[in-house]
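User: Structure please.
Assistant: Input sequence and predicted structure:
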Amino acid sequence: MARYTCSFTVADDVEFLRQLLSQVLHSCHLDIQHDNSDYMMARERLGQVSFSKLVKVEALIDKTTATTSATRVDLIVKNEELPLQTDNHCYQIFNLVKQAIVDNCQWQLVETAV
C-alpha cells in the first residue's frame, strides 16, 4: 500500500479552511466522500485508473489547537498499489494535491512539513 503524508498550517479559521480545502481537492479531480468538522475524505474519480490505483486523500483538521489565526491540517494520500516505483500514481497525486495547497492564493500558508 502506497502512503504519503504531509502537514501544513494555514493562517485562517477552521470553517474557511474547510471550504478552501474542499475546493482544492475538487480542483485535483477528487470527489469529497466524507466531510465533517475535523475530517475530510476525498477519492479519485472512478474510470481514470485501475481500482488498485484509486487514490484516497484524508485531511485531518486539528481543531484542538486551532485558533482564529492558525489551523493545522494533516494530509494522508494513499491507495492499494504497491509503491514499487518512486514516481508511482499515488505519489503523483500526492504532489498534485500538495502543490495545489501551496499555490492556493486564497489562504496564507504558515508552515508545511513533508
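Helices lie at 14-27, 89-103.
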